[in-house]
Structures are given as structure tokens and as C-alpha cells.
Amino acid sequence: MGTFRIGTAGWSIARQAADRFPIEGSGLQRYSAVFDAAEINSSFYRPHRLSTWERWADSVPADFRFAVKVPKVITHEARLIGCGEAVATFLGEADGLGEKLAVLLVQLPPSLAFDADVARRFFVDLASRSTAAIACEPRHVSWFADEADALLGELRVARVAADPARHPGAGEPGGWRGLGYWRLHGSPVMYRSSYADRIGHYAQALRDELEAGREAWCIFDNTASSAATGDALALAEALGA
């Protein structure tokens, strides 16, 4: 059997679900008493001191894990080219999480088309610098062709299953299938719509991953309306967690 982790982007606790969490402690301490994973998105926008990463790692239980979004200076500005120094700087900071850094999330801009040479160089270099798994959320249609999927599989890069799906196949995991990584942004209204009526669907998707012996993550990014906390709790309950 595989394993699964459920969490949200960030660790804000919705007011309507506050009674499900401990009263005392920092926001992250309270969150990690209930969930076993969180996705750090702030790293996409700005660097954090090593001491900040270390403090986050020290705030959570030993079995808690983080996914960390790779900075936009790498993905959106350099567009994966000639960014070795920026990658080294980022990982030098994020390494403050220690073994609790589990996944590096590489979200690509919608305009970035698949280029096999660029993708190979970037992901080989990234993997050589970190033991964390890699999940890529491409948004250009060319990344969903067989060639791109095969290369991601070869390089052990999981393709994110995203909702809403921009292209056919984007809502299902692809690439390397040792990891299934769902990012649920909210639909029809991005970052706001709840998944209350689709919890059963995603629970079954994670069960399928478990039965196949894979690791599965499901991260709710519909945080603008505070729906993420309730959706994550509901999914965990549906899976008996």
C-alpha cells in the first residue's frame, strides 16, 4: 500500500473550523497537530532566511512534511534556463527544513512551452542538488503531449494533477507515477470555490494511488474564501485519516 498526505497551501486555519484545532501554539503548530503536510507558496515570491525555514521545521511533528514552491525568478523570469545560481541559493535556504522538505513544486508559466533539452537540463540539475521529490505543474498545452510525459517519467518528475484543468489530461497525474500530486485551486471560481461536492471523487483518486503502492498528496489552494481548511478536513475524514 502507498501513503497519502493532505493539507493546504499555507497553514491558515479558517475561523469556521477553528474548533477542530488546538487552541494554543503558533498557527503552524496548531495546523500541524491536525494535518501532516503543507505547501509553502511564499517562497515563490520572496526568499526566506535560513532561520525561518529552521523555525518552521522545528514547529511541526517529526512525521510532518512540506512541499515548497520554487521561486518565480527561476520558473517565470529565467524560464528554467541558466538559473543554477538561483537554484543553489534557494535550496541553500530551504534546506533549513531538513528531512521535512519532501517535494519541490515547479509551477511553470502558461506561456512556457515544452522544450526537451531545457527540461532535461533543468530537472537533472535540480534533482542532483536535492533529495526531495519533484512535482511540476505545467500550464502550456505542449507539456501534455506523449513526448513531454515520457521525459518527465524518465526524469522522475511527477506532473501535477491540477483543478481547474487548463487542458485535456491536466486534471490527472502524469509524468513519473511514483508520486501523485493534486493541486486543487478552486473551480469554477479560482481560489474560492469549495470542493464539498467533489470530496468523494478525490478520495477515490487517492485510494487508487494507495492501492497502486504510490505516494499521493492532495493540496487545497482554495484559500481566499477559507474553504481549503474544511475541504482538507473532509477529505481526510473520507479516507479515515
Helix content: 25-40%
Distance between the first and last residues' Cα: 15 Å
Class from secondary-structure proportions:
alpha/beta
| Beta-strand share of residues | 15-25%
Shape: globular
The run of helices and strands is: EHEHHEHHEHEHEEEEHEH
Largest sheet composition: 10 strands, mixed
How many H/I helices? 9
Low-confidence stretches: none
CATH topology: TIM Barrel
Count of distinct structural domains:
1
Please give the CATH architecture.
Alpha-Beta Barrel
Question: What does it look like?
Answer:
- This protein starts with a strand and ends with a helix.
- The protein has a single domain (3-238), classed as Alpha-Beta Barrel (TIM Barrel).
- A 10-stranded mixed β-sheet has the order 7-9-10-1-2-3-4-5-6-8.
- Helix 8 (199-211) packs across helix 9.
- The chain has 241 residues and is of the alpha/beta class.
- The protein contains 9 helices and 10 strands.
- Helices cover 35% and strands 20% of the residues.
- Strand 5, helix 7 and strand 6 form a beta-alpha-beta unit.
Brief account:
This protein has a single domain (3-238), classed as Protein of unknown function UPF0759 (TIM Barrel, Alpha-Beta Barrel), CATH 3.20.20.
